[in-house]
């Protein structure tokens, strides 16, 4: 069987340190050549597809280390669950259209309700791990968000680590009065809205979290973190609000602090070599939805180096270009959604940059009226999304093919 070849030319190629005009040659699922200021000399190939991108940017596919979109796809409203396989396939198309080529699906394991119930979480993990082996459009990985007050879940967490069923763990503590929800009423309101439960039921649940917090077995959690590290599973902490929590993250061998609550904690984390992840929606909106640290403030102070979609995959690509408007170097902004998360997660040998030998996970991006329009998404050299536009009767028509 002949090797499939694609040549992407007339491109502005986004490399880690600069943007160059040139071409990229793909053979099979890998990048085989990246050339600057040269027209491709590929006459010897008769089985090649020539792709003129007309000066568009060609950048690495984006790597999203935190998105709970799969939860929203399964449970779009309280007490309303849809089939997991349907959610997987439909979300996969949305991710391709958003330019996310590697997704760490974030699943919360707790004693909550609906999609965050432990039995449902296990079913989702098993289903994703099965489906990603058969017909994947993008690269699928599992990010398990473990609620520390879910004491009964420790043994389940241990089993998932030892079975290598997950790729990333984050330790979370959503006890009222600290972390993301210093305002206990705000957490109560959020839980009622999220799960559609009555006030008394939520009060009982939150009271239980206080009781469980005092019983957290940190010796066991540190031990599990070390086992995970030996299995190649990375560890993150979530909603850190003190330097002490960063010290605990370091003691556990963690590599990422997700959504630190304040700038002092974020600055300290970076000074200790910890990767700091902030959300793309925060960048676009210019503020936190829970009135915590502004993501752009952290980035401008060199206190954050990774951007994830959090809950809105379509915000990722526009966030990169919003950062440029805020004064961030273009290639540095691109690295926040490509190389930096790849390095933090230990997958940078395969993805994260436009480089010979790496997987041909690429985005073709056109700037239209100062806004980034994704024209094509490639994963492993396959065009999984394509959007071509043309002017017709003074109106723009967009034909989308997935």
Question: How would you portray this structure in words?
Answer:
The protein is an alpha/beta fold and 402 residues long. The chain is 34% helix and 29% strand. The longest helix has 15 residues, at 84-98. The model is unreliable at 392-402 (pLDDT under 50).
Annotation keywords:
14 helices; alpha/beta; 17 strands; 402 residues; 9-stranded mixed sheet
Layout of strands and helices, then pairs:
Blueprint: E1 5-14, E2 19-27, E3 30-36, E4 48-52, E5 57-60, E6 62-67, H1 69-74, H2 84-98, E7 100-109, H3 118-131, E8 139-147, H4 154-162, E9 168-172, H5 184-195, H6 199-213, H7 218-230, E10 234-238, H8 243-251, E11 256-258, H9 263-271, E12 275-279, H10 280-285, H11 295-300, E13 306-308, H12 316-325, H13 330-335, H14 339-345, E14 362-368, E15 371-379, E16 382-392, E17 395-401
Parallel strand pairs: 1-4, 1-5, 6-7, 7-8, 8-9, 9-10, 10-11, 11-12, 12-13
Antiparallel strand pairs: 1-2, 2-3, 5-14, 14-15, 15-16, 16-17
Helix pairs in contact: 4-7
